Amino acid sequence: MNTVCALASVVIKELYRRKDFYVLFVMTALITLIMGSVTFFNDPKIARYLKEICLLLVWVSGLVIAIGTTARQIPAERENRTIFPLLAKPVTRGQVVIGKFAGCWFACGLALVIFYLFFGVISGTREGKWPLVQYFQAFWLQYAMVGVVVALVLLGSVLFAAPSSNATICFIVVVGILLLGRHLNQVALNQTEPLRTMVYAIYFLIPHLEWYDVRDFVIYDQGTIGWIDCFLATLYAAVYVALLLFATWLAFRRKPLNV
Amino acid sequence: MSRIFNPALILVLLCGAAFGLATVVQPRAQTWDKRGNSANVLNLVLGDSRRLFANHFFVKADVSFHSGYYPSIFDQAKPSKDSRHMTSEEGSSEAEEHERKMNFLGSPRDWVEAFGRHFFITKHTHLESGNEREILPWLKLSAELDPQRIDTYIVASYWLRNRLGKLSEAEQFLREGLRNNPKSYELLYEMGCLYKENYHDQVRARHVWELALRRWHEQELDKKDPDLIGLEKIVIHLARLEEDSANWDRAITYLEEALKSSPNPDLLRQQIADLKAKHAGKTSQDGPRDE
User: For chain B, what is the total number of helices (H) and then of strands (E)?
Assistant: First the structure.
């Protein structure tokens, strides 16, 4: 456990030493504040467009940070040859995988906390309402989804040759699931066999990341989601994280470390 | 020879040629597309693709109006192309039709879909009690990107004047629309409604509606499929206005024009008969007095 924590703390330190998070946060804040300074039809109470823009930026930034941070972890260790002293500690390859995952996930969590604090302040001051439970649910579900994304990118980093190709492929897959995942069953029903079965199989196999996007509940003040549903969604994400990390370990276990 | 091909001289020559071409082409380019005349930065950056974005923002306003409950391109019930449901009153035929169309979800096909429905909005509601203001930014953006989209001005004006009590803002926005679309009878009709229903200024309303009717005749009369609903709205409102002012003849003329387009001609015929009876009664009452 100590080994995993030590590995994770290195990743977290890397996040605050690199400029990615700061650039994305400043960009999000700047765009939101500029949009917030515009008044439409002399009505200062209009707020939902601002919440929508800010949450969209939070989601984009969250994904960029998660994928960008995770994609370079294992390849960087191999390129710099720091993986050899690390494994000689002794640290097992399984611990490396779990440590890297934990570090990236916690680092993304820290970034998300700051993003959501900013969102909460902007939204609260504009609307005069503080639906903290709603914000917490939105944060938690996004955080759970980021966990799956981090595990997926970690698997990609042992399968693909370069971090750039891994990041690009993972970004396309994640955005594809977010946009189309919910509708794949409808698409399948409009196909002929054997395509129908194939699309339906993909529909059941992919992690349904779109469940975790509950921005509409926050933007349109539609109340909270049931806690049992939140718990089940978290469990679903945990199962996918475990599966993906296990697959990563299987692929990493026999992978030659020389570049 | 090397002196002739001096790079600095070539650069100066190229700059001169570019400047000369710009002075010739630029004034012509401005006349190529009337929609491209705006000095707006968004128009400059996005070019013609701004109309796609304008459409996207208009749909966004509709999504916002439904608090996120909206059919996607995969849902069988396609979102309505027209925007009448956005300005229809509760209980009207448009509202009922819209209610039917928005029942697009059906029962879930599998457990993934059933569980997933806990995480997106599945209830059909419309914004109310002042929250209608939330659609306005999207409409404003849509109008900025495509000033020729008439629906944008009409929907925004409807909510501004009827639910939000922002009459001067509604008038200003409609005027902006009319500046961009000076021949639009729809915008003139909406402007007339603002004068009649909100400012209670019958004279200006009459002038604007009469102009709207003229514009309708200029643009729609020769069309294969004219906008008869638009015509009916204008003439019915004009007829009511004339009836209120006891101009029976003109009211009857307008109602007779509405007969051409009305889906309910029997009702109109009855109203015309009533007006004629009123007119006859009035004339007979006035007759002895004149004597």
Answer: 13, 0
